[in-house]
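Run log, item B.
One chain of 530 residues. Sequence copied directly from the ordering sheet:
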Amino acid sequence: MEAAVAHLQRASELLPRNPVLRCELGKVLAQTGRMELALPCFEQATEAAPDDVEPWLLVGVTAGRMGRTGDAIHALRKAHSLSPSHPMVQRELAELLFEAGDAPGSLPLWTRIAKAAPSDVHARLRLGETLSRLGMHRDAVSNYRDAVSTSPDAANLWLALGQALEDDGDRDGARRAYQTALDLKPDWALPLSALLGLGQGDGSSQLVAQAQRLQAGAALGDTDRALIGYELGKVLDSLGDHAAAFASWADANRARRRTAGPMDREALEQWVADALASSPAEAEGPDFAAGEDESLVFIVGMPRSGTTLTEQIIAAHPLAIGCGELPDMALIAQRADAAGKPPYPSGLLREWADSYMSSVRRHAEGTAKTRFVDKAPLNFFHLPLIASMFPRARVIWMRRDPRDIGLSIYSQNFSPDARFATDLRDLGHYINAHVRLMRHWTKTLPISLLEMDYHSLAQEPETQARRLLEFIGLDWDERCLDFHRSKRGVQTPSRWQVKEPVHTRSLGRWHRHEVSLQPLIEVLSPSAYV
């Protein structure tokens, strides 16, 4: 291989503008892991042959492998413009856009790829996930139904079909799809945990026994152990075996912590301290049109504080639409961090605001909606940026008994990124930090903010629903109390709770586990309580 590198280097020195030689040298360097040397070769080839698709493709692939996602997407877009039907260009660009969270950008690409290769399981999975991210749950279901008809033995397609059916509100259909996946791949943790999560039904005792057998064994990896432990605990809790339930959740959280790592308490405390000491200068009103937009409603708070219920109530209004937990503000916050400290130039704020609004409006194409609800709870970290971009937006801060929040989070299968969820003391510190931040934002940010108590919402749904609508500038509509009749899909852990009327069963659940929750309770500050 080194001889080939030396030969191609000599040839390239003799013919420095030859794009073929530059590409061949780059390929050999890439094959030996020297990406940082390969990339300039491909870039030089694009300069020598700007209308040739291969150098642009190679730049995109190499930059992507190096983690330079922006450069990779730029190069692959250029390659795609030169050769829109090039299969590898389509796939590489679709994959990068998907990984970057650009579902609208990747959708037409995955659609074409799947149409050209109907039995391509990976493409079908990516297309379905992209559709789901865009809230197109029925289309996702149709994609997976067509896919399993072509590849009936692909257990992962049946699993994905079950997830899409859950998102679309078809509980029985989801159960059948998960069971098929489990039949095709016995003891697979994903469909088993999904079936447990659907609650009581035919064969539930057999599922519990199967889960307990796997949990007791040593062969279960930490990822699968966590999946099964969370859902098994919920079933045991519903059966009244609270001690066994908490033991299952503890086992799941230990497993998740081994794979995801602990929360960095010091980093969190430093971030909060910096935020509390910062000037609210970044929240000064921008001088561009997006800043005047009154249509946005942000529901923030701790996870499991009632954000989904609140969104569903508002989204039942004919002039409102729930956009779910949009990732856009978190992505924009990353770009803001890279841009330096606030205040930010109005040009940047305009660019970010336009990007966010284009994503929001895709959820309401062809409708007359006037209120758009983003219920990503952790947007509370980004409220100064939100106030800077959209000073006329409304923010609803959901509050709930922190002991109920802690129990609900500890028993829930969150993303591995949620490191605060796996340890009760970490949970307490995180809740305290959240309250400190929100109290600070409430006092310092020039933005409309409503504090909403989940306990009051559960006990007085009409009174609090009227309060919500008045706050966001909408007239009262009785349909907001019938939100549970809505056919819209929900992709959060509360998806089945919001398919029934408001109830009080979740209030005070922590009492059943008071002894086990002591590490959390000892850490909670007085201000954490509603």
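Observations after the first pass:
- The first strand starts at residue 296 and ends at 301.
- Confidence is low (pLDDT under 50) at residues 281-285.
Flagged for discussion on Thursday.
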